[in-house]
Amino acid sequence: MLDKVPLVARILLGLIFMASAIAKLTGAVPPPEGEAAQQFMMTLVNTGLMTVIMLVELVGGLALITGFFAPLALMVLAPVTLVIAWYHLVLDPMGIPVGVLLIALSLAAAHGYRNLYLPIMQPRTSL
Predict the structure, then answer these.
(1) What is the pTM for the complete model shown?
(2) Of 17, 28, 71, 98, which cross-links 23 as Cys (Cβ 3.0–4.6 Å)?
(3) In whole angstroms, what separates CA 118 from the centre of its chain?
(4) How far apart are the C-alpha atoms of 7 and 67, rounded to whole Å?
(5) How far apart are CA 93 and CA 85, in angstroms?
(6) Structural contact between residues 81 and 106, judged by C-beta atoms closer than 8 angstroms
(7) Terminus-to-terminus CA distance in the chain, angstroms?
């Protein structure tokens, strides 16, 4: 049973990221409340970074759902997850559970690939 946790976490995380990207692309996401949150979002939109984030979420979510390049997708989505969690912690405290959920699912999914991640965590003394 416990061996299925990373699989379920990976698929749920993929569904969340794909749904988020599709909602943003279709304009179904309401504007954030609060001046600082609105300024942050407008900066992302005006610089084109929101488009990049949506594409990363869409492709990364698809990779997580299908399992193709899932370890790479988890690594690419990690900074997006951290920014989402930080955004909710600092600018939208009502959304803190979203950030906690994304981090928990990311860690659970990554745990299933720990044998692939451990070698890159080893210090190297030479090139």
Answers:
(1) 0.90
(2) 28
(3) 21
(4) 9
(5) 10
(6) yes
(7) 41
Task: Kindly report, residue by residue over 72-115, the tens digit of the pLDDT.
Answer: 999 999 999 999 999 999 999 999 999 999 999 999 999 999 99
Judged by DSSP in three states, 101 sits in helix
**Cβ-contact 109, 13 below 8 angstroms:** yes
Cβ of 48: how many Cβ atoms within 10 Å? 9
R_g (Cα) of the chain, nearest Å: 16
pLDDT in tens, 61-78: 999 999 999 999 999 999
Amino acid in position 88:
H
Distance from C-alpha of 65 to C-alpha of 4, rounded to nearest angstrom: 14
CB atoms within 10 A of CB 20: 20
C-alpha dihedral sign at 54, 58, 64, 67: negative
Boundaries of every domain in the chain: 2-117
